[in-house]
Amino acid sequence: MSEILDGFGIHRSYFSISLLIAIMLIFGGGDQLNKIKKYISIIFLSVMILLFQSKMNAIILVSIFILFWALSMRRLPVRLKIFSTVALLFFLTFSGLVAKKRFAPMFERIENRDAFTGRNSTEERYQYLEASFALAKETPPLGYGMGDVNNLIKSKAEEIGLQRILEKKIYDPHNEFIKIYLGLGVVGLISIVILFYKLFYRAITNKNIFLFGITWAVFCSCFTESYLSRQGGIVPFLIFSCLLIQFNPKQKIP
């Protein structure tokens, strides 16, 4: 499935985030759909995310399902509680079987880091982190400037001999928090942490599950992608976060 997106030049992680946002809005804002259409839509989008085999988005999907299940358990009658619990267990089992193909080799490679060849995504990410952490030790308090981060990653990869990064010619750290720290220093890192804290706090105090879910999805994605540094990430995040700060889909429009 991921090869299909690659053929259109679409990054599977960013596309999966869009599907996650759609699932969350259907969960609570899809009252205009009957229950059968609603659940079929959620199942279809969830299977799509799993088939795209984006590891982080699979983890986010599972965590969101567990969150919605836990919240719904408070108001469901006993029979529906049993049914929803069985459905969740079935989903977790199915997700584990589908994701096994991606996660099992990843853990094997992490355990055998000395045999890294840098020829797959897990080993590539490890090399990006290695270069980024080495550079972070030398970062001045106000950073190097966002425009210089990629060039500095390239220089550090050359210095410590990370050939796969040099062959691929992509020098992004693939971690938003690290990228902001390298570019803007401690001030930038504290700023982004405060941003997410404010969004989570607003979501929890207003009981806005959709703002919480979208913030959670983006927050997790920032550990494996420079999500907010790309137009495909920052634009939908700003649109949905700004809308949901002012409007909870569970509330009726006056």
TrEMBL record:
Alphabetical GO CC annotations of the entry are: membrane
Q: Which UniProt keywords apply?
A: Membrane, Transmembrane, Transmembrane helix
Q: InterPro entries in the record, alphabetically?
A: O-antigen_ligase-rel_domated, WaaL-like
Top-rank taxon of the source lineage equals Bacteria
**Residues annotated as domain O-antigen ligase-related:** 41-192
**Can you say where in the cell this protein is located?**
Membrane
Q: Cite a single Pfam family from the UniProt record.
A: Wzy_C
Q: How does it sit in the membrane?
A: Multi-pass membrane protein
> For this UniProt entry, which segments traverse the membrane?
12-30, 42-70, 82-99, 178-197, 209-228
Q: What is this protein called?
A: O-antigen ligase-related domain-containing protein
Q: Which organism is it from?
A: Flagellimonas chongwuensis
